[in-house]
UniProtKB/TrEMBL annotation, chain A:
Stated name of the protein: NADH dehydrogenase-like complex subunit M
Species for this entry: Haloferax prahovense (strain DSM 18310 / JCM 13924 / TL6)
Highest taxon of the lineage: Archaea
One GO molecular-function entry: NADH dehydrogenase activity
GO BP annotations, alphabetical order: ATP synthesis coupled electron transport; electron transport coupled proton transport
N-terminal signal peptide: none
UniProtKB/TrEMBL annotation, chain B:
GO cellular component terms, semicolon-separated: membrane
PANTHER family associated with the record: NADH DEHYDROGENASE
NADH:quinone oxidoreductase/Mrp antiporter transmembrane domain span: 135-444
Protein name: NADH dehydrogenase-like complex subunit N
GO BP annotations, alphabetical order: ATP synthesis coupled electron transport
GO molecular function terms attached to this record: NADH dehydrogenase (ubiquinone) activity
Keywords, alphabetical: Membrane, Transmembrane, Transmembrane helix
Pfam families per the UniProt record, alphabetical: Proton_antipo_M
Length: 509, 506
């Protein structure tokens, strides 16, 4: 029942925040958001699952009750966590609380609605990561979009209308394609399943129960469904060339929303890819290894090159997210314990580090009211603490050892080199590693021009150190990044435990 | 043990009786004090009457009155009326919509004359709809249809000093009169072939075979035309945008939700009971295949409604076309019936009924929001809606719920009702119908989200003044919004009841 309680408390917190006066909304939302943090940490401490939730493993905090009998397949309220979802639940609660604190300064109108929507989004995100029934999962998945649409559209920058609509249209079309793909897979399973519970579906697929549907043979159906689902999730991740909504959304969104978007919402895509495509249809995934690896490397390199070309600090971080997500895809397709495990670890690590980077850019923007690299230089003189954390975060992004990013990328590269899905895999891995060089290039270049050198600022604002409540979330994120980097086993042990059953399916372990 | 084992059989029509008495009571109140402006008493009486009738219908449904568990449908007055699960289910839809509309009218009509007439017309129309759901003979079908229609004409033209309202009323009346004539002619042709007006007897007569296949076919086609008018389906849809736009918004809500559902109630019963598909196809050698007719109408209606809605600049007119689109979805319930369908027939018809139930909440709520905006005097185009959310966040949140639910987006009731409809269509083998429906549904997000975008994201072009906070409208809108949201977790009893009572027709 603890998962239900966690989601319900977060929903309640959202409702309470909606009706509070604007003056108190930010502080109250922060206080209320501590409840899910405590709840998720308690869950983590009591966590006792083993194996993969979809493949017959032991599910922690499981609830399974029949909800709807609709036609051939029942819909159950089924939630639970395993080693893949548990770290993401913790990430979601912590990052939301920090994002709420970071919103105190920049959000100056309709606060109660803003913070209410943030909490509403958190509740739905928790649902996405804990749901184990397709419909429950899909409802939460779609319900995340609505708060995000308003958060970008109402509180965003000058082109917020365009960005919000683009985000909404891209992700909704993706959802529809994915929905059709998955439903046709379910219909292809015929009578071998009785409900939309994901474990039941995954296990029926492993048992080779897939039949033909709508004139497609079992093999063709698996391919079509795989491609439809991959497309749907790839938009969310995003994988190049489906990434074009991301920079618009990030640049227009207010900083705290960017933090949530990069830190957690992108992980919905990679989490779903792992849960659906790579767990349910491993043979098909292997058959598509070449195009998927190509897309992964393209995302890494192209995203990094685009970041290199930007003048806007936020755009730099936004495009580098595309690059980092490419590593996740590379790790997933490697189908080795370090590859898939590293990809899952990267979801958490990137959530922390990209959150840190967006927040740092946001703190600088709060003071300077510009994000253009060319408008400033030597900011470190006036804002030493912020600049220091910015530099530390950037090094984390580059993969400095003893920080979470290093552990994640090291695992992914190790896993990808060991991969046996295809002969050319080391080649792709080598190409992807080149991305790190570009990342280091653009981050160092941007820092050198904005933070260091003689102080210069083309604006009328007084540049002083940011207030404590702006810097504190940055420090917390930096600390968490270092802790995870020093001892990745905090999460990596449970991740590997949940990932290994997936690898045993294809016999590549 | 059911209450009806101790009550006479006519007590099964209690919802209709309560509604009729409420209508008379309203007239009485108005007679005693014709100049009164005591709107609260009238609105309260009408709402209480509708709620009581709905409560009785719900209580009957729970107790299984007229359903298989208590001995099957209750047939009354020489088979002229029948009380079964389906009639009760539809009564629940009509009365809940009527209750929302009468509560909302408390504010909307505050400054109008002839309030007693307004409420009694609404309640009499509801009585007619309830009788439509119970009709078991083509004669009672026609009479109850007129009983529902005549008050509706007057209601559309209720704002006597508003040119739009008068024009809409006249258009509605002329097309209604025409379609009534066509419908009556169709009935006479069917009577000529079968020699009976009672629905089961028509079916029994057809089962013995007939040589007048052409006459039968024409009769069935004309009857279908009459229903197309009532449900605002192609080809008799074009009155709907005019009438809904010109009518007072609560009346538009009433017509587009309750009146449409009534048309479907009677169409479902007439076509499944009087013209069972396996009988008419056997008689006509396949030439009288109304399932194919409705499949074509469903596709054309939903597509036309959607594309027309996408091009509107007026929110009320957009909703009118969206209402045509939803008639197309509901038609799937008849289109996907097959001769060897078995349980699948009941499933798809039930899914269609469940969709109409959810639609009753979300569509009524949407039109009532428009009533509220009209009350505020803000205008009717998308631009006029700019920035409403900053002044009235609660009402705007409710409208957002209605829009996304109408588009079929989770986490709202419209998601499951559309899914159930399309899933059961696939179950009957009509995957192409489901595909057309799903594509239309996805496209509809375009124009529904325009309303949301205007309310929340756009800046108002001129300073926005919102005068009053109408209590009745708020109550009705919040009730509809809560209903729309709760129908997601609580969809199970609705779909289960709908599919059980629909299965009893086959």
């Amino acid at each position: 029942m603890i998962i239900e309680a966690l989601i319900a408390v977060t929903f309640l917190a959202a409702l309470v925040t909606f009706v509070l006066p604007n003056r108190y909304a930010g502080k109250a939302a922060f206080a209320l958001s501590l409840a899910p943090v405590v709840g998720s940490l308690y869950m983590w401490q009591q966590y006792d699952a083993s194996g993969n939730a979809l493949l017959g493993g032991n599910i922690a905090f499981e609830t399974d009750v029949a909800w709807l009998q609709l036609g051939q397949y029942d819909i159950h309220w089924m939630v639970g966590v395993d080693g893949i979802s548990m770290p993401l639940v913790v990430l979601t609660t912590i990052l939301t609380t920090l994002a709420i604190v970071s919103a105190w300064t920049p959000i100056s109108e309709r606060q109660s609605q803003f913070f209410g929507l943030m909490l509403l989004m958190e509740a739905n995100l928790l649902g996405v990561f804990t749901a184990l029934d397709f419909f429950v999962w899909f409802i939460f998945w779609e319900a995340v979009l609505l708060p995000m649409y308003f958060l970008i559209g109402v509180w965003g920058g000058p082109r917020r209308k365009y960005a919000a609509i683009k985000f909404f249209v891209y992700t909704n079309i993706a959802s529809l394609v994915m929905f059709i793909g998955f439903i046709s897979l379910v219909f292809g399973l015929g009578d071998s399943i009785s409900s939309f519970r994901l474990p039941e579906i995954a296990q029926a697929l492993q048992a080779g129960q897939l039949g033909s549907f709508a004139g497609l043979s079992a093999g063709a159906l698996a391919s079509v469904a795989f491609v439809a689902m991959f497309f749907g999730f790839a938009v969310k991740v995003p994988v190049a060339p489906l990434h074009t909504w991301l920079p618009d959304a990030h640049v227009e969104a207010p900083t705290p929303v960017s933090v949530m978007l990069a830190g957690v919402l992108l992980k919905m895509g990679t989490y779903a890819l792992l849960r659906f495509n790579f767990t349910m249809l491993p043979e098909t995934a292997r058959a598509f290894a070449l195009p998927i690896a190509l897309l992964a490397v393209a995302s890494v390199i192209y995203g990094a090159l685009l970041a290199l070309a930007q003048q806007d600090l936020k755009r730099i971080v936004a495009y580098s997210s595309v690059s980092s997500m490419g590593y996740v895809i590379l790790g997933l397709i490697a189908y080795t314990t370090y590859g898939v495990g590293g990809a899952t670890f990267q979801m958490v690590a990137h959530g922390l580090i990209s959150g840190l980077m967006f927040m740092a850019v946001g703190v600088i923007y709060n003071t300077t009211h510009t994000r253009m690299v060319s408008d400033m230089s030597g900011i470190a003189d006036r804002m030493p603490v912020t600049a220091g954390i910015f530099v530390a975060g950037a090094f984390g992004y580059m993969g400095l050892p003893l920080m979470a990013g290093f552990a994640a990328e090291f695992f992914i590269f190790k896993g990808a080199f060991e991969s046996t899905v295809m002969e050319a895999m080391p080649l792709f891995t080598g190409a992807a590693m080149f991305g790190i060089v570009i990342v280091a290039g653009y981050l160092l270049f941007a820092m050198q021009r904005t933070l260091f050198g003689p102080f210069r600022f083309d604006g009328d604002y007084d540049i002083t150190e940011a207030p404590f409540h702006d810097v504190a979330p940055l420090a917390v994120l930096l600390l968490l990044t270092i802790v995870l980097g020093v001892s990745p086993d905090i999460f990596f042990t449970m991740i590997q435990d949940a990932v290994n059953p997936i690898l045993e399916l294809g016999g590549a372990f | 043990m059911t209450p009806l084992q101790t009550l006479p059989e006519w007590a099964a029509t209690a919802p209709a009786i309560v509604l009729a008495l409420t209508g008379l009571a309203l007239l009485l109140i108005d007679t005693i004090d014709p100049d009164s402006t005591n709107n609260g008493l009238l609105a309260g009486t009408a709402t209480l009457g509708a709620l009581a009738a709905g409560g009785i219908a719900g209580w009957f449904l729970i107790n299984g009155t007229g359903m298989e568990s208590t001995g099957g449908a209750i047939s009354l007055y020489g088979d002229a009326l029948v009380v079964d699960g389906m009639s009760l289910f539809f009564t629940l839809i009509f009365t809940s919509v009527a209750a929302m509309v009468t509560v909302a009218s408390y504010d909307y009509l505050a400054d109008e004359a002839h309030q007693g007439e307004f409420y009694s017309l609404v309640i009499f129309a509801t009585t007619g709809m309830t009788l439509m759901g119970m009709s078991n003979s083509l004669a009672t079908v026609f009479i109850s249809l007129e009983l529902a229609s005549l008050p509706s004409y007057a209601l559309v033209a209720f704002l006597k000093k508003d040119r739009g309202s008068i024009e809409a009323g006249l258009k509605y009346f002329l097309i209604g009169a025409l379609s009534s004539a066509v419908f009556a002619f169709g009935i006479s042709l069917v009577f000529a072939v079968t020699g009976s007006l009672v629905l089961p007897e028509v079916a029994a007569s057809l089962a013995e075979g007939t040589e007048l296949v052409g006459v039968l076919g024409l009769g069935v086609l004309m009857i279908a035309g009459g229903f197309a008018f009532k449900t605002a389906s192609v080809p008799f849809h074009f009155w709907a945008p005019e009438a809904y736009e010109g009518a007072p918004a609560p009346v538009s809500a009433f017509l587009s939700s309750a009146s449409k559902a009534a048309g479907f109630a009677v169409a479902f019963r007439v076509f499944t009971v009087a013209f069972p598909l396996e009988t008419v196809t056997a008689v006509g050698g396949g030439s009288v295949d109304w399932s194919l007719l409705f499949a074509v109408l469903a596709v054309v209606t939903m597509t036309l409604g959607n594309f027309a809605a996408a091009t509107q600049n007026n929110v009320k007119r957009m909703l009118a076309y969206s209402s045509i689109g939803h008639a197309g979805y509901a038609l799937i319930g008849l289109a996907a019936i097959t001769t060897d369908g078995g349980a699948a027939n009941g499933d798809v018809l039930g899914a269609s009924m469940a969709h109409l139930f959810v639609y009753g909440f979300m569509n009524t709520g949407a039109f009532l929001f428009i009533a509220m905006v009209e009350k505020w005097g803000l205008g009717r185009t998308f631009e006029d809606y700019n920035g409403i959310a900053s002044k009235a966040p609660i009402a705007a949140s409710a409208m957002t719920v209605f829009m996304f639910s109408l588009a079929g987006l989770p986490p709202f009731g419209g998601f499951f009702s559309k899914y159930a409809l399309f899933e059961s269509a696939i179950g009957s083998g009509f995957w192409w119908l489901a595909a057309v429906g799903a594509v239309n549904s996805a496209l509809s997000l375009f124009y529904y989200s325009r309303v949301v975008k205007a309310m929340w994201i756009e800046e108002p072009s001129k300073p926005l003044e919102i005068g009053s906070q109408p209590v009745g409208l708020y109550v009705a809108i919040i009730f509809a919004a809560v209903g729309t949201v709760l129908l997601l977790p609580g969809f199970q009893p609705v779909i289960e009841t709908a599919q059980t009572v629909a299965a009893a027709l086959f």
